[in-house]
Amino acid sequence: MLNTLSGRFLVLTTVFVMLAEVLIFVPSIARFREDYLRDHLERAQIASLALLADDMLETELEQELLENAEVYNVVLRRDEVRQLMLSSPIPKPVAETYDLRASGPLSLIRDALVQLVVPENRVIRVIGAPVRDAGLLIEITMDTRRLRTAMLDYGFRVLALSAVISVFTAILLFVAVRTFLVTPIRGVVENMKLYAAAPEDARSLIKPHAVLHELREAEEALASLQTELTHALKQRERLAQLGGAVARVSHDLRNILASAQLFTDRIETSEDPLVRRMAPKLVNSITRAVSLCESTLAFGRAEEPAPTLTMVRIASVVQDVLDGESVSYPEGAVTLECTIPPGMTVRGDPEQLFRVILNLVRNAGQAIAASGRPGTVTVSAREEEAAWTITVADTGPGLPAKAREHLFKAFQGGARKGGAGLGLVIAAELIRGHGGNLVLEHSDSAGTRFRITLPKGDGTI
Questions:
Q1: Which of 162, 171, 341, 417 is most enclosed, with most CB atoms within 10 A?
Q2: Exposure of 372 by Cβ count < 10 A (0-12 exposed, 13-18 middle, 19+ buried)?
């Protein structure tokens, strides 16, 4: 009950209403005390008027008037003369004097609270103005026992009534909250559960119908989110099916092309000049097709293992890449350089870093070779406080605008004819597995530069 929104609202409402009633109770009890004292002043004044009417009252009648007024003495000031109109023995000395003519709200509240807190019976003197201008002032002496009893009785009745009002108000608010707030929210929650069970079912999409503006906005936002998510799930399912089909086709096509590669080896031995001239082009075309199939299969498997992080001499990894790539180009066409200090180490998976740097260096070298102008590919690295940075820069012609726009998107970011655009996608995924990132710093007619960032700490870059 208390863990629900309506339950907590019920408790908080009761507490707040009780607090408000307490704040009302304090001045109310002070007002009651003031009225009580003024009533006794008036009753004492009436008793003194009887004495003015008959100056020879008997002692028994005078005592009866005092008891009826619940006072010990009555002093009336008329024509600048103080007159002791009625008197009886005072059981103890006067403890406090209260002048109601000059009492403000704060002093009345303070005196009332003191009266409630102090339980002992005291004798007090009360001064006030006579009613109907029957003198300059009237003064009475009385005890506080009956006053405190009357105040406690009044206070208990006020608090009991406040409790009833609080509970009644809280119940009304509880019902209102459940009707106008909790029930609509519960409907939204039930719809979310229904949608989670079958997100592809269009019948589970929420239909906004709330009356409250805020809930209506929430329902509309949820409806928009569910619609977009349903479309995305359908698209993802179609892409998954398409990916499976492509993988199967690529697998079979790779086997066919592998067989075709074997035949091209024999074609190259032909003595026919036309065949000898066309054979290298055929071999290159088949080789690119096989490479595309293998890349597609590798990307579609999505089974790249997590990197095994060790401290790696990055210069050694880069040099292995450059040694392997240097034989791929005619002498003087592409210069490969490594400016990394031999002793520099980074934290990473050596095999995966080799693949990433190989991809970047190979792309750069192929771009330079395709331009027909000599160029240089330089791999450098530096160590910073929070990360290691590896840079692969070239002096080639730069990436085309379309390639830069879709650089890290599969099958869209290929920069050369026949490329699938998967190399950079896979490289970026490998670096993200290290907690770092791979970005293109710049690419123009003066060259291209990629930056690899590997974090030193446990967090990602």
A1: 162
A2: exposed
